[in-house]
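ok so heres the complex, two chains, lmk if somethin looks off
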Amino acid sequence: MSKPPTVSYLLYVNGERFEVPLPQLTVNQIRALASIAPQFELMIEGVGSKPDLQLGLNDQIDLSHGAVVLFARPPTMFGMARSMSE
Amino acid sequence: MIYRNNVIWLGVAPTDSDLQDAKTLRLEIVHKKGLGLSETDTALANSRAIIFSVHNGSDVLIEQATARLIGASMVHGLMVRTICPLIEVDPVTRTFSSLDAWMIPRVAAHGHTSRIFNDILDHTPGPRWNTKLRIKGDKPKYAEDEVLLKRAFHDCTEINLCKITGGTSADVFQVFAELGDSRVGPHPLPFFVKFDRSPKIRRELDNYRDCSALFLPFYARPNLDFSRCVLGAKRGIIVGNFVEHSASLIDLANQGATQGIVGSLFDDALRGWRRQAYHHNQKPITMPLAKSLGGAAWQGSQAAQKRAEACAQQAKKHGATMSAEMLANRLDALPPMTHRCATMHGDLHGDNVRVRNGQAILIDLASVGSGPLVADPASLDAALALQMEEQNFAIWQTFIDKAFDVDALLNVPGALLPATPLSHIHDMLRDIRRVGLADQLSVGEYAVAVAIFLLRHAYRKPRDGESPGRRAYLFSAAEKILLGLEDRLQAKHSSSAQGAN
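and the predicted structre for the whole thing:
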């Protein structure tokens, strides 16, 4: 008797493809998978005109509806001084 | 040959693929089933990283790693990683929550170890310890410090430590070393060695790397020997060349021998940071000055808050009425001021400036950050109030009343007659205020900064040999400056309202 096919779900982190056996992943799991340093922010790439979305510590991503594309972003403070003065 | 290329692997055995990945990068996996590793184990001293490979969050290995092995590994500079099945990542991560934040190892998923090996290859473990090093003289405070010394001075046969007094949280020593094998000879010039908590040492090293070499003149700072600066688990060590034949600024201030030194400090030693404030892309900002300094209160521990409130309580006998929290809040609530910002030393006081042949030399870059341009002169100004030598409390009080009156912080105060007590300190304050008041763009900017630094004295631990009661009195002086500034703002507001009518 042959083994049932293993279901796998797809995601891309920083352009790299990952196949995982879980339909949902926590932020910690994504970091563990792609070796993302804790000080980097994890972002979901927006499709079309949708903006990129930053993932919080307790967020989960759902892979059951198709591949999700993520990228890691180093901590930044662009424009901080100006926005504080305005 | 890669230096320290062993990777200790504990727990679930590595797969053939793991072994192959490691071998490709010329890393040697040493799989150990037993634990039995301690700080004194040569296996740790010879390795670059340690990996805890576990089944789940309740694996007994995690408990032992948390209790002892992670700390023991970090003392020797090892990178620490944990790997587990993807589904167990969250429970495993939670088991490390009792550790200090900087000790929590990153968790990776089984089957994705090639990235870990790349990280390990990039990691610099630093020198391995020299167990034969003889350590003489004064003793460092913690057992971990001795291991760090044996790593930092790995190429020496003997070191002799002389403790330097004056600092607050850190332990600083002058170190005379005997090199094991040098073509010049066995006796290098003396080193300075500073121990502190690991995250503080890491921050200070980052500050030296980012802000020092290109911005502070080489003759106005200590030069670090980065190959000897190492981080452990709880502690870290900075090693540099000792600033010889120098005196602290506070000692010279107390002797009245600071002519020209304030100029050397702000216009030479610090010019690489301070002049950035005037460059085309550094526009002045408008916000409450306290906010620009990260809040008026010193962001310390709960113990620091308690010290400040106790100080506020004592200050009541000098006429103060506010708690430390209230005073900080009122300073935070002052109206926005337009001011220039630049990189600042952040902890400028009489012991953090050394002087050699009239040249100011900055030490202790642990608190370097961005802030108002008036912050460093104001910090030194407030520090002088605390540190100046005067046995007679009444004379000191009279001096503070005059020198830290709000009017004396809005314009450079006039000179005192030479025979007036503490006139030499007054002269130095005049030099500092010429700099601080020239930096300000808004009236009262410098005065607010001085009030904030006077308040922050209340949060800090007293120094050895400090005159008791001074911090409480300076707290009351900070409150008077605040009230004086609020009165002036109120008067200005009323007169402009009348003008409008």
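quick notes: The first helix of chain A runs from residue 27 to 34. thats all i got rn
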